[in-house]
Amino acid sequence: MRIIEGLLDLIFPKTCEKCGKVGNYICDNCYKNLEKHELNKWVKPGFIFSAYKYEGEIRELILQYKFNDKSYLHKLFAEILLKNKNVCKILRSYDIIIPVPLHRKRKLSRGYNQCELILSEIANKIDTSKIEIDVLKKNKNIKPQSTKGYKERIENTKGVYNVENSWKIKNKSVLIFDDVYTTGSTVNECKRVLKNAGAKRIGVLTLARD
Known about the structure:
The protein has 210 residues and is of the alpha/beta class. 39% of the residues lie in helices and 20% in strands.
């Protein structure tokens, strides 16, 4: 795998997604500009960790990634997360990592699950056996949370997720990965069904927090 990646890097060299400089998906100068948005904070001690504040360039990049068909930005997000020592420590401290799922119709419409793509890139750097995409499922195609108010978001997520292949998480520590934390309604519902399915310990990692 790494030999293939090396050959691809020679043919299609990595370039900074912000300025186009050859070398990495984000160059040192552009990364420093993103650092001003770093949050590195637990929303709840030991439960939800967010790497960035959902503002400025980070917010712009996430919106472009999710809604403007720029799936290639997953490489940038994976790279900035892996540059964060706290994030790397969290990723390595759980048995299983699960991306928040999209309903199949939403995934078909968008063309990709943004959280799943970021984790797939991260999987090239850490133990790939940790990442599971066939455990947590979204069984209702609800309206996007971004269109809802606080109370509506909570009601909107009730009964939306279910667990399949529960044997994979039984008595395991599970990390849920989402792009943006706003009210917590999505991750709280995911946490509830995973806990009911037998997960021992559940944490949440998000790219940004509103």
